[in-house]
């Protein structure tokens, strides 16, 4: 199954908007860890709520990626809008 099919299943599923967002975040996290281009850039990617270095609550950040070259972290916001 390809990523476009997985995204469409999330969009079409009978899930709440919050659940769709969570599923999409998890899909993006897995994608960033396994895609050949991104896995060379990021040492690790975690959900914001699981990141042990956060200093505040909900900031709109969904994922945090640690750079492979130890230069820092990248904040990632995931949005699963309708295709159109």
Strand order of the largest sheet: 1-2-3
Helical segment tally?
Answer: 3
Rg estimate, integer Å? 14 Å
One letter per element, helices H and strands E, the order comes to HHHEEE
Q: Strand tally, please?
A: 3
Q: What is the beta-strand fraction?
A: 15-25%
Instruction: Quote the average pLDDT.
Output: 89
Separation, N- and C-terminal Cα atoms: 22 Å
What class would the helix/strand composition place it in? alpha+beta
Low-confidence segments: none
How is the quaternary structure best described? single chain
Binned, the helix content reads 40-55%
Categorize the overall geometry.
flat
- Biggest beta sheet summary: 3 strands, antiparallel
Tags for this entry?
alpha+beta, 3 helices, 3 strands, single chain, about 80 residues
Short description:
With 84 residues, this protein is of the alpha+beta class. The chain has three helices and three strands; from the N terminus they run αααβββ.
Q: Your description of this structure?
A:
With 84 residues, the chain is an alpha+beta fold. It has three helices and three strands. Strands 1-2-3 form a three-stranded antiparallel β-sheet. Helix 1 runs antiparallel to helix 2. It is flat, with a radius of gyration of 14 Å. The two termini are 22 Å apart. The model has no long low-confidence stretch (mean pLDDT 89).
SSE blueprint:
Elements: H1 3-12, H2 17-34, H3 36-41, E1 42-47, E2 63-67, E3 73-76
Antiparallel strand pairs: 1-2, 2-3
Helix pairs in contact: 1-2
């Amino acid at each position: 199954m390809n990523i476009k099919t997985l995204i469409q299943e999330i969009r079409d599923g009978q899930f709440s908007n919050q659940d769709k967002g969570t599923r999409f975040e998890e899909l993006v996290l897995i994608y960033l860890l396994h895609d050949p281009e991104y896995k060379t850039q990021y040492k690790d990617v975690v959900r914001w709520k699981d990141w042990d270095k956060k200093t505040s609550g909900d900031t709109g950040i969904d994922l945090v990626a640690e750079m492979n070259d130890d230069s820092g972290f990248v904040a990632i916001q995931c949005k699963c809008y309708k295709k159109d």
